[in-house]
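Entry type: protein chain
Record version: 2
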Amino acid sequence: MVALHPATVAAGLFVQQEHQAEALQELGRTVGRIAGRGETVLPAPAGPGQPANLSDALAALQSVSEQVRALVAHHAPVTVRALDAAPASAPIPADVH
C-alpha cells in the first residue's frame, strides 16, 4: 500500500475534471468546424414536444462544461487547502481500480 495524501488525490481529480470540461468544449468547436465545411448541418434547437437534436446536445454539453469549470474554480482551491492541512494517516491501495 502507498499512502497518498488526500490533497494530492483531490488535486488530481480536479485536474481531470478540468480536462474533461475542455474536451466537451473542443467537441463543440470540432462539430462547428465540420458544419462549417458543409459535412453536417446543425439544426435549430428542437421546439417543445420535439426530440432533442445535435444542437440541443451540444448546448447541453457546453452548459455542463461551464458548470464543471465554475465548480472546480470555486471549490478546488479550498478543498485542496483543507485536505492539505489534514493529516494523512490512512493507507490507500496503490491500484485504485
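Comment: The first helix runs from residue 6 to 36.
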